[in-house]
Amino acid sequence: AAAAAGGAGAAAALWSEVNRCGQNGDFARALKSVNKILQISKDDVTALQCKVVCLIQNGNFKEALSVINTHTKVLTSDVIAFEKAYCEYRLNRIENALKTIQSASQQTDKLKELYGQVLYRLERYDDCLAAYRDLIRNSQDEYEEERKTNLSAVVAAQSTWEKVMPEDFGLREATYELCYNSACALIGQGKLNEAIKKLQKAEELCRQSLSEDSDVTEEDTEAELAIIHGQMAYIMQLQGRTEDALQLYNQIIKLKPTDVGLLAVIANNIITINKDQNVFDSKKKVKLTNAEGVEHKLSKKQLQAIEFNKALLAMYTNQADQCRKLSASLQSQSPEHLLPVLIQAAQLCREKQHAKAVGLLQDFADQHPANAAEIKLTMAQLKIAQGSVTKACMILRSIEELQHKPGMVSALVTMYSHEEDIDSAIEVFTQAIQWYQQFQASQTRGTNPKSPVHLSLIREAANFKLKHGRKKEAISDLEELWKQNPKDVHTLAQLISAYSLVDPEKAKVLSKHLPSSDTMSLKVDVDALENSHGATYVRKKAGKLTGDNQQKEQGQGDVKKKKKKKKGKLPKNYDPKVTPDPERWLPMRERSYYRGRKKGKKKDQVGKGTQGSTTAGSSELDASKTASSPPTSPRPGSAAAVSATSNVIPPRHQKPAGAPATKKKQQQKKKKGAKGGW
After folding, report:
1. Residue 149 CB neighbours (<10 A)
2. pLDDT tens for residues 168-178?
3. What is the pTM of this model?
4. Strand locations in 116-264 (E)
5. How far is Cα 391 from Cα 380, in angstroms, rounded to an integer?
């Protein structure tokens, strides 16, 4: 009895210690006291519960779950359901957590809160939304703001991943978390300008909130703002401002945030900006997407996008085996998804295996008819790249749901025209027009009005036939258009033009329907036209010219300055009294008085003394010293102006004074240079 009393006293003291430590938040010390109590009474339910709570508070979720599973007889689901589900949730065993919550006999408020979190992680957004709406409606405590934040996160996820138009719950955006979630919802709707404003407001609220806490440093603030800045950079990327986005992404990475999910998303977005360029940087960034725990932080679509980009990066870096391995894994996970098979086809094309790529795409189109249209478009593109335009046209025409689309019709007609297959092009027009006729016949009763697209196709078909000389075939289309709109003068003119080559009499009859010249007069507001910007400019310019003319006529105003003519350069010894040689511009050989050179005449008279000396007979050779010596080359019409004894040389024949001296100086320089070279 004494021993039992002593044990009870020790247990009471230990419980007091547990209570005190729990209130102080010292769960490590409390755990020691609980373990001592369990040594006294190993199946104490309260002690076991306290041990599980202490382990959870210390972050030892695996050990806490082991304690629960070990003592299942004592710790039944009714007693410990929340703690068990929470441990499973924190250990990312989300499906197990859901089963634990659903198996609980009583759904407490704590379990409902956790249920909402579990549904969000499972991406069951509709059920999650209903759970939070119920919680907000039936709860009144200090956690209402957190519940509204979670509700706004669900709305943002629906808008982003499921493209659902979000319901307005009238949430007051008083916190930066609510503002951020609202911005994410706007991004999902494509309202990027509004989203960026919301993010700016969220940043402002975040700075205000954190500035009130004196323990928060600037680095802590920037770390908290990293996710907001990351979303801003994403919007910039969507808007095409890739340089700004890249700069902001790199700034966030330099901060080294602890959120591995944020780092993975940013790294993935940088890789998408780099594409096939800067692959070395992309290979560094892809390591951030492989960090531990990333798969638990991101949605399935985010993880899938990252895997797609890994496969594309492997293709761009010529890692063919890695690319095939990744794309095959993606295809096994999502057999109906287009991207894995498209990546495989792209890799085959890089290896010059175009036929194999087309075969791969054809097999996928046969297995998944719902996605066949996009695959066949890719097949057609490959055929065009190979130069098989006709085969590409056949593939495009096999896509039944797109045959009648104006874009497809235009593409086929252009391709057939390139191949000079006019009959096939006209057949494409005919099939599309017939489709619209059948469709509208099924939609309307009695009357059968033509839709704008239908009429546009008929007009394009008529214009195409007229352009390629198919007048008879164009007439039926033009008549149909004129029937729909008898006031269309342009169509009537085309119809008359076509009939004029086929049936002139019919053309004459139709020409009576043309409006008269009186009815075709345009109703133009002359005053408005004259006061328009262009007319005012022309009128001012014309007025300016008229004023100039009047000034010229009246002899008033400034005299217009004439451009000064540059005087031509004359020879230094030019004599204005001597009439210039009219043939001076002709080469010497072409002049009328040229007699040719007399070779060998003065050979014997060449001086043989020192340089510069003259021979005894040099004076006899000087024609200027002979009084009766006639000019060597008489010029027509110059005898009357120049006396027989004149020694003036015409400007064309003159040499500049000092020319021999210059030549001599050049020779001396040349010699000097040669000497220096030696």
Report:
1. 18
2. 877 888 899 99
3. 0.67
4. none
5. 8
Q: What is the pLDDT of residue 41?
A: 84
Q: Distance between CA atoms of 563 and 38, rounded to whole angstroms?
A: 117
Provide the CATH topology of domain 420-442+450-513.
Answer: 1.25.40
Calpha distance 37→10 (Å, rounded): 9
The dihedral formed by the CA atoms of 83, 87, 90 and 95, expressed in degrees to the nearest 10: -100
Q: What is the full DSSP assignment across 26-71?
A: -HHHHHHHHHHHHHH-TT-HHHHHHHHHHHHHTT-HHHHHHHHHHT
Least confident of 37-46, 80-89, 312-321, 604-613: 604-613
pLDDT per residue over 222-259, tens digit each? Answer: 999 999 999 999 999 999 999 999 999 999 999 999 99
CB 94 within 8 A of CB 113: no
Residue range(s) occupied by CATH 1.25.40.10 in the chain: 1-106, 420-442+450-513
Fold classification of 1-106 is 1.25.40
Helices and strands in the chain, H and E counts: 32, 0
Please give the torsion angle defined by the CA atoms of residues 101, 105, 110 and 115, in that order, rounded to the nearest 10 degrees. Answer: 30
Taking only the tens place, the pLDDT of each residue in 437-455 is 888 777 665 455 677 887 8
Q: How far apart are CA 461 and CA 394, in angstroms?
A: 20
Contact 136, 112 (CB under 8 A): no
Residue range 319-402, CATH number: 1.25.40
Examine the pLDDT at 98 and tell me if it is beyond 90: yes
Instruction: Give yes or no for residue 563 having a pLDDT over 50.
Output: yes
